[in-house]
Design goal:
The chain is built from twelve helices and twelve strands. The chain is an alpha/beta fold. It has three domains: 7-92, Arc Repressor Mutant, subunit A (Orthogonal Bundle); 100-169 and 267-301, 3-Layer(aba) Sandwich (D-Maltodextrin-Binding Protein, domain 2); 171-257, 3-Layer(aba) Sandwich (D-Maltodextrin-Binding Protein, domain 2), CATH 3.40.190.10. The strands form four sheets. It has a five-stranded mixed sheet, covered by helices on one side.
Length: 303
Amino acid sequence: MQALAGTENLAWDDFRLVKEIAAAKGLTGAAERLGVNHSTVFRRLGQLEEALRVKLFERHRTGYALTSAGEEMAALAERMEDDVASFARKLAGHVVSPAGELRVTTNDTLLLHLLTPLFAAFCAQFPEVRLDVVVANQALNLSKRDADVAVRATDNPPETLVGRRVATVAWAIYGRADEFEGSAEADMSALAERPWVALGDHLGPVKAARFVRDRVAAERIVYKLNTVLGLAEAVEAGIGIGPLPCFIADARPALVRLAPPNPDFSTGLWLLTHPDLRQSARVRAFLDFMAAEIAKRRRFIEG
């Protein structure tokens, strides 16, 4: 980055510098984000403030806080970044044939238990498309191209995205088959007295987590997880009974349903993208392919 001679020479790097220091609330975090060392960020900020003849940050013991001038510069940096991302999306939307890199985000459970074979089949059919899979349980910002497509189990997809609901993920209560003699149903009042496994408190909004919290005494919940990924292993290990997605548990002979799939647990399975990308050849090819393949497995996914 070049030193400033005056405000007429302001460059995107200067705006980005302020934006990253503000986001990190300090120089060390900003240096990591920018891929430079601490002293470079310190020197650049000093040069920038000297060239502008205004302080952009107040230095506090708790970190760097934007001044009013810094706030305006950081806000403009956000708008500039949004404009660049929007332009990139529009360019991607004009690609004619399915080719290039496609970034797909999903969660660990869907990836391991459902999607990996489908991704493999997609790669075989569209060899010019390179998949970059981002495993994240939190929502990524598709507007800023954190990902091009999201495969999500949700009942409330973001209004800023477009897509299709391709299936309903069914859940039921499962236990070890050898403990229940292959029984397909059991009385809920009796089940409530058994040890349970459940999702952790921070996943409280998940329907199955709410069900356990509302129907099972806290002392009966002997094992909690912060991911769906390990629930089936916990039940199969004999730690307790618990709610599981049917497409995971039904594939395990050692597990048995203790009640029919509960509609109150179910969530939609969505394929989502940004409106600017839906005409992209690689995005459209991926969405169409995945919708068709998931449709073949819908009875399995829906219990």
